[in-house]
Amino acid sequence: MAKQKFNIIQSTCIPIEITNCNTDLIIPARYLSSTTRDPDFFGDAFMHDLRFDIDGKPKEDFVMNRPEYSEKPHEGIHEIIVAGDNWGSGSSREHAAWAIAGYGVRAVVSCSFADIHRNNLLNCFVLPVVVSREFRTELFETIARNPQAEVKIDLPAQTITNISSGRSEKFEINGYKKYCLTNALDDIDFLLENKDKIKDFEAARQ
User: Fold this and answer.
1) What's the angle, vertex CA 175, arms to CA 160 and CA 186, rounded to 5?
2) From CA 157, how far away is CA 160, in angstroms rounded?
């Protein structure tokens, strides 16, 4: 998936109010056999069986197919998902994170995440933001009133703000992952960035 520096984003949101939205809903198992890493392929598969019927026609009642949420994410538009509790439960398939990143989402906001899925999101440069239930409820209500409402996520300050109400919350993130997101580094990139320090450490031990 594309490596993209994460600093501050301000965007409209897609509200997916599904509790225990598991990885099989995020990307059906039949897509796991593919050998491609094409982000568009996995993005098209994101929430596929909820978005489309058996004939491949969009299900009009699913949130992502409503006119106000159907536009594909790009800068400032639908880059944030506001999700139900326990997002990403079920299997540990990393394809679920690939699908979210491939669709163009930069952050997922929920009260709780399945641990493995949360780490998979971070590895795909998608920020999982854990907020209080009260704050998440306010976001859902704000978006329902105005689908054009924006949310601001400031990674350096570790804050999320409902622009409409002005209310903010702090969120937690592992310091290493914060550094990697801020600098668009995966684990290998991080090691390569520090290869001289690693060589010096090894030399000092000999």
Assistant:
1) 100
2) 9
Q: Which residues contact 157 (CB under 8 A, 6 or more apart)?
A: none
- The encoded tokens of residue 38 equal 């094409």
Sorted by sequence, the CB contacts under 8 Å of residue 153 that are 6+ apart come out as 8, 9, 10, 80, 107, 109, 127, 129, 159, 160, 161
Residue 1's pLDDT band, with cuts at 50, 70 and 90, is low
Q: How far is CA 65 from the centre of its chain?
A: 19
pLDDT above 80 for 191: yes
Q: What would the pLDDT profile of 14-72 be if each residue is shown by its tens digit?
A: 999 999 999 999 999 999 988 888 899 999 999 999 999 999 999 999 999 999 999 99
**HEC sequence for 159-204:** EEEECCCCCEEECCCCHHHHHHHHHCCCHHHHHHHCHHHHHHHHHH
Q: What are the φ/ψ torsions at residue 96 (nearest 5 degrees)?
A: -65, -40
CB within 8 Å of 97: residues ≥ 6 apart = 88, 117, 120, 121, 123, 124, 126
Whole-angstrom distance, CA of residue 147 vs CA of residue 149: 5
Under 8 Å between Cβ of 159 and 171: yes
Nearest to 143 by CA among 71, 83, 184, 72: 83
Q: Alpha carbon of 144 to those of 14, 15, 56, 128, 174: distances in Å? A: 10, 8, 27, 22, 32
